[in-house]
Design goal:
The protein has 73 residues and is an all-alpha fold. The chain has a domain at 28-73. The protein is 66% helix and 0% strand. It has three helices and no strands. It is globular.
């Protein structure tokens, strides 16, 4: 999901995540990815947005860690 994003794009999402997390808000940068996840998983009506956001957030940080540690799987 995040594989095609440039490092700079990931940095913008991370900055938004950090600011929103500190303010107790939802990370708006991840919402489009969560909505896409809901659509592509076929669970658009069943999966709450906050659950999709948790899944997408995990995927985001896995991609960031993979690039940071230059791990290729």
């Amino acid at each position: 999901m995040f594989e095609d994003l440039k490092k700079e794009e990931l940095a913008v999402i991370f900055q938004d995540y950090t600011l929103s997390h500190n303010d107790g808000r939802m990370c708006e940068s991840l919402v489009p990815f969560a909505e896409e996840y809901r659509r592509t998983s076929g669970m658009n009506d069943l999966l709450p947005l906050y659950v999709a956001l948790e899944i997408v957030c995990k995927d985001f940080f896995e991609e960031v860690a993979k690039r940071f540690f230059e791990y290729d799987n």
